[in-house]
Amino acid sequence: MHSQSRHLLIISCTRRKSLDAGLIPAIARYDGPTFRVLRRFLHQKSSNCLDVYILSAKFGLISHQELIPYYDQKMTRKRAEKLQPEVILQIEEIISHNSYQRLLICASKNYFYVLEGYEKFIKPDLSLEIATGAIGKKLVSLYTWLYGHPPELKNTSKNLSYSGKIHFKGMEISMTTEEVIDVAHQALLEKKGNSTSYQSWYVLIDEKKVSPKWLVSQLTGLPVSKFHSVEARGLLQQLGFEIFAN
Fold this sequence. Notes:
By secondary structure, the protein is of the alpha/beta class. It contains 7 helices and 14 strands. The strands form 5 sheets. The protein has a 5-stranded mixed β-sheet, with helices on both faces. It has a 3-stranded antiparallel β-sheet with strand order 13-12-14.
């Protein structure tokens, strides 16, 4: 991240949250994969040039430092439409009162309904990036925007580390093993797809057996029908996972 310029990150909240009682900062309350990447960055780097605002299904647009309780509320289209007018006014005020050089919006689909109309506040000298798609793709976009380069790939099963990009079905995947596990945790929590639909091969996520094709689908956003099991196993092995046979 360029140290002499100011940057704005708007990121959607996650279903996975810290269960700590009472009020804690929003950056600590939300515990999905994107927030783990963001927290690591804030711990490692100076955040003086970065402003972070979170789109919350319950609270609307809030600073990452705002103290909030635990809650469980889903962002629906109806909820998004209710929050949109106030959120848009906040975004206009935030952008108009600051000289940002870069803006990243990292959000899930329903959260973009809250942002309808934000484009009219984007100044010509403000570089806008959008992180969308599968969670794996969003994680790489967020990491690259924050650090200025893709994440280093680590192959922990072979005790090797290397940097670069893995190509899969025309896509570039740059994720650490830890980030892939975070994606799996989030997908399991949200009960996305059928994680136990496998025949001969599986991957262990916290001692839970999951389908390699299911996990690759969560990383890439591709339906499991678009690739073969052997391709999924090969990708996961490159990302540092051991593949087990029944």
